């Protein structure tokens, strides 16, 4: 896997950073993006080693041109892209009658349209490499809950989009999977990770799962994966 190149959106913290750390540790060339270019460059600098530099890029997945430019930068620097992990996402949790149109749009545009932008920008490179496209959705993409109307809509959509894209792209030998985590110890929704989150899935656990998927025999395609903590908080 040392000759492989991975692009991870939302790679400056949380799940995206956990994935970047694991892939980098296992010899994969990693490019990460975030809405703030300075943050992406700083995290990339921290992750980089003499043997394996990490490439930081500023890109807002809501903007298709940003994703086009990110893919162009990566291919110019490394010559190809083998793996794309569409991880960027956000959540706003309010009753539907209190959710603003701006808040609705920010979730749909990031969590759903952003995935489309990332795939649309990278799909021709993935055809060349017969690569892998992975989306990070959520158990909220199959389980609805109170105060989650906008988030549920975006994550249900992300799962449906990814599954349909899998059927469209497998004829090109592109593998497509969606990962649907439950509670993960991140800064998501204003959480501050601490010892109280020890029961949750850790970002590096998702990174290990991504690595395991990438290492599977290419004849096998785990198209939709639910992952949850073994136990609930007590």
Automatic annotation (TrEMBL):
It holds the Pfam family adh_short. Keywords: Oxidoreductase. It comes from Kaistella antarctica. SUPFAM superfamilies: NAD(P)-binding Rossmann-fold domains. GO terms for molecular function: oxidoreductase activity. One of its GO terms (biological process) is monocarboxylic acid metabolic process. Its EC number is 1.-.-.-. Coiled coil: none annotated. PROSITE patterns: ADH_SHORT. The lineage of its organism: Bacteria, Pseudomonadati, Bacteroidota, Flavobacteriia, Flavobacteriales. This is Short-chain dehydrogenase. NCBIfam families: PRK07326.1 (NF005594). Belongs to the short-chain dehydrogenases/reductases (SDR) family.
